[in-house]
Design goal:
The protein is α/β, with parallel strands linked by helices. It folds into 3 domains: about 325 residues, TIM Barrel; about 170 residues, Rossmann fold (3-Layer(aba) Sandwich); about 270 residues, Beta-lactamase (3-Layer(aba) Sandwich), CATH 3.40.710.10. The protein is built from 34 helices and 32 strands. The strands form 8 sheets. Strands 7-6-5-4-3-2-1-8 form an 8-stranded parallel sheet. Strands 9-14-13-12-10-11 form a 6-stranded mixed sheet, sandwiched between helices.
Length: about 950
């Protein structure tokens, strides 16, 4: 007897724990005002109108007269209480919503079937990840923020209810209807994710509706097509399927949707859908679990609901305990059946009245007591905000999961020592994954689609044998693993990236077991592909954990964490930049285009190791025949000093090849018996050597306006190897003439005077000390390890001219349009490689060099320069002028500054004559790059400076930095 009492007491304790108060949304409003409004509206309604409040119909998102008449008939004749729209566009749905609301006596509850936000139903809206991908995210606070954003977007669309979260525990690999709609297979994790999402929704004033009660996760059938059966015991249901719903109900959320399932353990009546079972809806959900909110059926038009002509499913659903009849199969006849059931005493009138009042209360909660139509103007902009873009990106970034990582291969290191190929399976066009890979490394790309012939596939695998590492991106579930792929995994370092549902990996089991690394991207969306590539290269760290088990491969919870080691790509909000203010820099860039300050440009902003703005504007020339892209390569001009030559100088300093106090004549013997014998390396770097600003070396190669035939030829040969421009080849021995011209040049006092000659001497010194040409040193020691494959001297030796932006039409020396050859004449007559100019790059590659500086010489997990050397060169400033050791810096004391007025004193960087600049702010961990060809077609164009384009952009970036709250 005592044992029985204890068992009863324990059972009551459990039940008391499960019992929930009224939903929070209902209790947080003024109860007196709510009841007064509810009663006042209820009292105006006829019996027919009260019945109508229980119906929520599905509406097509079309503006045709036929569709509009159908919807208005539902409103006027059935007096429906709510509407659920099919797929469509936000603008059309908003128009329909306004028209239906205007026609309705009682404002309608507008619902969304948006398990992953508006984009599940509405085109042109932010594409958030689906639930299984969200299930990989460890940070539930981020899921809550996602719910808040979905709620905000819903409010913009006049939506009051979201049929989410999906709380199904997907424990069946072959589930045809849930799958990616589930947060995973762990009941506790599903509960946590679902509650986080629901919390965000209801915090934003949108009713959450958990589904599909009592759990649709372990079925092999689709309730849209038939009635699935679940044979689990009650104990199993309690511990798995029901667990998330119990947690959800205890948290006081507003809505639950009942599923069309046959579950004998809950109701043995054969083939009775749980949604129509009083034992399930009233007995289990409402009485036992204590749910007091709104109870929605799943769509009653689904075949799982039965649609029995003898027993109308709408009638059965109301008797079972449901409050709202969602998407009835035939609204008009179903309405009639409910009315007849009331008149026949089958459905008590009080039941309808109670449910009608309950629905009206939630209409008050939704704010329909003060209904306002949706403002149509600017709707798309209000939906697609910068915050929404950041949130979608952040969710993707935190979900990407690294399942395997032998020898810590990921993130990839020593890029210069690997020949890399990307094999895309199933993607017939250049993918976002491939484009993102190209931002990190020069790779070759191969594609296999379903239409690829056997011979073509064989050729591809034969070519892949030439590579050290192959990244295999799987974009489809329709191409199975092949024997060739298994052999490739045996012979090469293979990194997998799957953009499919995780379960599909079992089809690639054999090659996965041989692969070195496996990345799960979950979906084939652009963001999933971009962030998966970033995980592989270390632009972001891997943070996700697998939400479901992959049979015979990986258990749920598998996930290897890695660190960020390279620049990543993200939205401005990720680093505390106001995206709207940052976007103002585009208007300044466009102003420059309109004023013809330059035909085109690139703009890049990076902060805290993230590139958050990388855009191209305009065209290569004013003819606008070729648009600038972010891959286009520019002549950096004098910015080459700090991005190229200075790196070689730092390397030589790192290797203790010189001291700053050394005299340059110690390394260039020709200067020992000249007035330049006492110039120190420090003075050269500070531009305080007294040397002339520039020397026209080309004059010694010309006579009477023509090139000297003993120095210059129109054809290349073993004797004439320095290519000055098309059809102009110079003897390398001309370097002796250059040295002598520098030796004999005038020397002024040792005060600040900017001189290109300083860096020409520094280049000569580093080559003498490092025993190699400077461009070779920079390529092997920096460009290749950095993955800066667009960065080079003499770019035509590595890339097609179409990738290179032209500079000036030279009418004085070379008499041609300069494209792919250095613009600076002094550099041109040194074979294109000079200490003062000659470097070509794009903003993305240049950012890698600058991040190397910010990282104190480290990038990609490799220490390319010592931290001490980098700090010395980036932090030292001349005591008598604004210059640093090779870098330019902001001017102070009212002097004209090359930087914006808001730049901090710690900033360092350089400008270039062709219309380029870069600035690095170590205090803000900020990089700003502007590249243009303002000298096209003539250098006399000074509008870039007169309009202060570069400095205004820099100031705008600083204004976009949000102040952190203390």
């Amino acid at each position: 007897m005592k044992r029985i009492v204890l068992l009863i007491f324990g059972w009551l304790s459990v039940m008391t724990g499960l019992a929930a108060d009224k939903p929070t949304l209902l209790t947080q409003v003024d109860q007196q005002k709510m009841m007064a409004w509810t009663d006042s509206v209820f009292n105006t309604l006829s019996m027919d109108e009260r019945i109508g409040q229980l119906f929520m119909v599905i509406a097509d998102v079309k503006t045709t007269n036929q569709n509009m008449q159908r919807l208005l008939r539902y409103v006027n004749e059935l007096n429906i209480g709510g509407v659920l729209f099919h797929k469509g566009s936000p603008e059309v749905q908003a128009q329909l919503t306004n028209r239906m609301q205007e026609a309705s006596k009682v404002p309608l509850l507008v619902s969304l079937d948006g398990e992953w936000g508006l984009s599940m139903r509405l085109s042109g809206t932010t594409r958030f990840p689906k639930n299984m991908m969200l299930g990989a995210i460890e940070n539930d606070l981020l899921i809550r923020k996602y719910g808040e954003e979905v709620a905000r977007q819903c409010k913009e669309m006049g939506i009051h209810i979201n049929f989410a979260p999906d709380l199904d525990v997907n424990s069946n690999v072959d589930n045809p209807v849930i799958g990616i709609r589930s947060f995973g297979e762990d009941p506790a994790a599903v509960a946590d994710k679902g509650i986080a999402y629901a919390s965000g929704l209801e915090e934003g004033g949108i009713m959450a509706v958990a589904k599909h009660f009592p759990g649709h996760g372990d079925t092999s059938d689709d309730s849209h097509e038939t009635l699935p059966v679940i044979y689990h015991s009650r104990a199993r249901l309690d511990s798995v399927e029901l667990f998330p719903f119990k947690q959800y109900i205890q948290k006081g959320f507003a809505g639950v949707m009942t599923a069309h399932l046959y579950i004998p353990a809950l109701d043995k009546r054969k083939n009775l859908p749980s949604s129509l079972s009083e034992k399930v809806v009233k007995g289990l959900l409402q009485d036992e679990l204590g749910f007091q909110g709104l109870c929605f059926t799943d769509a009653l038009a689904m075949k799982g609901a039965g649609n029995d002509k003898a027993e109308n499913p709408c009638v059965k659903a109301l008797l079972a305990g449901n409050d709202i009849l969602l998407a009835p199969y035939a609204p008009i006849s179903d309405y009639k059946a409910v009315k007849e059931a009331i008149e026949g005493g089958i459905i008590p009138m009080k039941l309808v009245e109670d449910k009608c009042k309950k629905i009206l209360q939630y209409k008050y909660v939704a704010g329909l007591n003060r209904y306002q139509p949706i403002p149509l103007k600017g709707l798309s902009d209000r939906l697609n905000t910068a915050h929404a873009a950041w949130l979608a990106a952040q969710l993707n970034a935190e979900a990407i999961t690294l399942l395997k990582n032998e020898d810590d291969l990921v993130p990839l290191k020593k890029l210069d020592q690997k020949k890399i190929a990307v094999l895309s399976i199933g993607s017939g066009v250049t993918s976002d994954f491939e484009e993102t890979v190209s931002k990190y490394v020069k790779a070759d790309f191969f594609t296999i689609t379903r239409s690829s012939s056997a011979s073509k596939i064989q050729q591809i695998y034969a070519k892949l044998d030439k590579y050290d590492l192959v990244i295999c991106a799987v974009h489809t579930v329709r191409i199975p693993e092949s024997q060739a792929l298994r052999k490739l995994a045996e012979r090469k370092q293979l990194v997998y990236a799957f953009f499919t549902i995780p379960y599909f990996c079992k089809s690639y089991k054999q090659s996965i077991e041989k692969a070195k690394a496996v990345v799960m991207g979950y979906e084939g969306t652009p963001l999933a592909q971009q962030y998966a590539a970033q995980v592989i290269f270390g632009g972001i760290g891997a943070k996700g954990k697998l939400p479901v088990s992959i049979p015979d491969l990986y258990y749920a919870g598998t996930g290897i964490f890695t660190e960020k080691v390279r620049l990543g790509y993200h939205e401005p909000e990720a680093v505390g930049l106001n995206a709207e203010r940052l976007a103002e820099i585009s208007s300044i860039a466009e102003e420059g285009l309109q004023a013809k300050a330059y035909p085109g440009c690139q703009l890049l902003v990076a902060k805290d190791g993230w590139i958050v703005y990388n855009r191209a504007f305009g065209s290569y020339t004013y003819s606008k025949e070729q648009p600038v892209t972010t891959e286009s390569v520019y002549d950096l001009a004098s910015a080459s000093k700090a991005a190229g030559t200075l790196l070689a100088v730092m390397k030589a300093y790192d290797e203790k090849k010189f001291k700053l106090t050394d005299k340059i004549s110690a390394y260039i013997p020709e200067l020992k018996d000249s007035n330049k014998s006492n110039i120190t390396i420090r003075e050269l770097l500070f531009h305080q050597s007294g040397l002339v600003p520039t020397i026209n070396f080309y004059t010694k190669a010309m006579e009477k306006g023509r090139f000297k035939p003993d120095l210059v030829s129109s054809k290349s040969s073993s004797e004439y190897t320095w290519k000055v421009a098309d059809g102009i080849y110079l003897k390398p021995s001309f370097q002796d003439t250059i040295t002598q011209m520098i030796k004999r040049s005038k020397l002024g006092p040792k005060r600040y005077r900017y001189s290109c000659v300083n860096f020409i001497l520094l280049k000569m010194m580093t080559e003498e000390q490092l025993l190699r040409p400077m461009d070779d040193v920079l390529e092997s020691a920096f460009w290749a390890p950095l993955g800066a494959w667009h960065t080079t001297y003499n770019p035509l030796e590595k890339m097609d001219s179409v990738e290179i932006v032209p500079t000036e039409y030279d009418k004085i020396v070379r008499h041609q349009l300069i494209r792919g050859y250095v613009h600076d004449e002094a550099a041109a007559f040194q074979g294109g490689v000079s200490g003062n100019a000659g470097l070509f790059s794009n903003a993305n590659d240049l950012a890698k060099v600058l991040q190397l500086y910010l990282n104190d010489g480290s990038y990609g997990g490799e220490q390319l320069l010592s931290a001490e050397t980098v700090r010395l060169f980036t932090q030292t400033k001349s005591p008598t002028c604004r210059r640093g050791l090779g870098f330019d810096k902001p001017a102070t004391g009212g002097k004209a500054s090359p930087c914006g007025s808001l730049a901090s004193p710690s900033v360092y960087g350089h400008t270039g004559f062709t219309g380029t600049c870069f600035w690095v702010d170590p205090d803000q961990q900020l990089i700003y790059i502007f590249l243009s060809n303002r000298v096209y077609p003539t250098r006399s164009n000074n509008k870039l400076s007169s309009l202060s384009i570069r400095t205004r952009i820099q100031d705008t970036i600083y204004k976009a930095i949000e102040k952190k709250e203390l």
